[in-house]
Task: structure prediction
Amino acid sequence: MVSSSPPPINFETGIHALIREEWGYLVSTLYKSIGDFDLVEDSLQDAVEVALGKWKQAGLPKSPKAWLLTTAKRKAIDRIRRDNNFRTKQSEFALLQDQDDDLKEEEFDVPDERLRLMFTCCHPALDDRISVALTLRLLGGLSTKEIARAFLVSVDTMAQRVVRGKRKIKQAAIPYIIPEKSTFPERLSAVLSVLYLIFNEGYSASSGEKHVRGELCNEAIRLTRILEHLCPQEPEVSALLALMLLHDSRKAARFNNGGGFVPMEEQDRKLWDRKLIDEGSKLIETSLAQRKLGPYQLQAAISAVHANARSYEGTDWQEIVLLYDELYNLTKNPVVDLNRIVARSNISSVEEEIDALNALEEQLKDYQPFYAAKADFLVKLSKIIEAKECFQKAIDLSGNDNERDFLAEKVAGINSLQND
Result:
């Protein structure tokens, strides 16, 4: 039964927003019944086209999700019936037909299947780039064109990644399940890694003219909120959401009016989003209270110390160093060690830390932030020629125009001081 309420003023915009928000739910629910991602997407798109025409005339149904699910299942049945290989799909057709006989649009209520879909998209057998593409396409509802634009690759390249991912899931018979308790933490870690990868590419783009791609940050936060809702007892999930929110809280202060990058020590903290900081801080406090320490909790705790400091100089660097110590002991990651050394230089001195920094060069010789940090250390030590060489290495390793411009301005500043 369809309501007689008039359609909204911006009807198509509103409907597309509703469908985008529910896309992961719809895909995951349909995939459990149909078991074929291509058929799911095609049938769901058919249902959306019907909805746009019907709802505009008659108004929204009582349950748009249920309406789309039942319509998509019936479209799937129609597609299977028309398929040239119908005979080989008769069992699939019969199963869907049986389900269809019992469908009542207003009473359709199914469990949330998005967690299964997340674990399927982020299975360890899939390359990270494919997992990212599948997660954004199947869970986020982004088009292949949108994902390609966000990652600055061709539409054909991104389409191939999506196709390869779907094919791998089918050929390797990757199960559409929530992992057993014994393997859940490992598999959850893969899901978190993919979500964080999406956020990081948005927050600090690896290539192109723009340093930030807000649509990717927003999508990563939205998907992590879904995961946090589905896994409320997992502290690392809450911690990752906290970390994203705390980073995102600084977005208005990260660039000046001319689009130039502003480092944290020079940012106007009045522009930081207090609402996001408060939410992120509360999430990390709750997460740490569960006493199941993980890397995202420690990273979020570090970010919370920065976010709640009144000034860069007033930052509790001792606390940050202690947190980095814990994080390094947990991960043995050289990038963490680099950040720990930089933080430690704020409570000791550059002179005391330069040897520790140099010891990381072999491990981080292709890592742009290492040379940017080393250049800053050398400037403070008045080793200008070496500093300029490190800045140039950092520029050469930068894939982002904003980043290169920021580093070039630092070199220009050094040259200006030398000329004076």
Notes: Residues 100-110 have pLDDT under 50 and may be disordered. The longest helix spans residues 11-34. Residues 376 and 387 are 7 Å apart (CA to CA).
